[in-house]
């Protein structure tokens, strides 16, 4: 990893802070204070930015690249919890956690850059600007709501329903592409969906035979989207 003083790219740093949804109401002098204490962090594909249990020093506002958030199971397998795209703020809830440590590990899937905003600077900003604090809480609560829905879905759905919902979600994020690129291997995907690896392999094979999907290594093409939509219907919520 490499840290770079934000003054060398001040315009980029100012822009990414202003575009952060919960910082948009922040006055100019407060942005200047954040810039003064923050630094750019560049990272390379495959690099682990921090490990679960590391002392938390800062949150990361991602400008470019893609990150995956994971933990290791007791068997030593990686459990993927999610992905961080550009313009998202990583480890935001963690900077307020009592134990003061990163609750998960984070690894780069692509080369990229993020603005490292110190934990103490975020705390000070919240104390001084209640409106920003309100927006931050809204952001965290919405994320918590998504996690609750995911736990509910994982504990009440079948393997077929989970896989269908997952593939459709990926397709929605990449509508311009004919095939979906799976961001994880089969073992990681099985863990992410909460199923056994062997069960997932059998299901994928069955769907290929029925011509629901076509799989070539980590590329998946949806051939019968209507079937997948019907399977994923229970995952859809009205709010």
From TrEMBL:
Xref: SMART domains: cNMP (SM00100), HTH_CRP (SM00419)
CDD domains: CAP_ED
Pfam families: cNMP_binding (PF00027), HTH_Crp_2 (PF13545)
Residue span, HTH crp-type domain: 157-226
UniProt domain Cyclic nucleotide-binding: residue ranges: 22-125
Entry coiled-coil feature ranges: none
MF (Gene Ontology): DNA binding; DNA-binding transcription factor activity
Protein name: Crp/Fnr family transcriptional regulator
UniProt source species: Oxalobacter vibrioformis
């Amino acid at each position: 990893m490499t840290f770079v003083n934000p003054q060398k790219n001040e315009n980029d740093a100012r822009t990414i802070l202003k575009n952060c949804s919960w910082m948009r109401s922040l006055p100019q002098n407060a942005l200047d204070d954040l810039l003064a204490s923050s630094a750019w962090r560049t990272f390379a594909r495959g690099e682990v930015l921090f490990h679960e249990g590391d002392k938390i020093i800062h949150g990361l506002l991602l400008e470019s690249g893609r990150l995956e958030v994971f933990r290791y199971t007791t068997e030593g397998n990686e459990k993927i919890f999610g992905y961080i795209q550009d313009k998202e703020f990583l480890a935001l809830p963690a900077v307020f956690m009592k134990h003061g440590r990163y609750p998960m590990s984070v690894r780069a899937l692509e080369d990229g850059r993020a603005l490292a905003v110190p934990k103490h600077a975020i705390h000070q900003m919240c104390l001084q600007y209640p409106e920003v604090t309100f927006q931050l809480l809204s952001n965290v609560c919405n994320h918590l709501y998504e996690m609750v829905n995911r736990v509910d879905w994982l504990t009440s759905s079948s393997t077929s329903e989970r896989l269908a919902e997952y593939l459709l979600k990926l397709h929605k994020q990449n509508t311009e592409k004919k095939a979906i690129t799976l961001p994880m291997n089969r073992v990681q995907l099985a863990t992410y969906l909460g199923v056994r690896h062997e069960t997932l392999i059998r299901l994928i094979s069955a769907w290929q035979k029925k011509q629901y999907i076509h799989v070539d290594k980590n590329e998946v093409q949806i051939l019968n989207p209507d079937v997948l939509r019907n399977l994923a219907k229970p995952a859809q919520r009205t709010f």
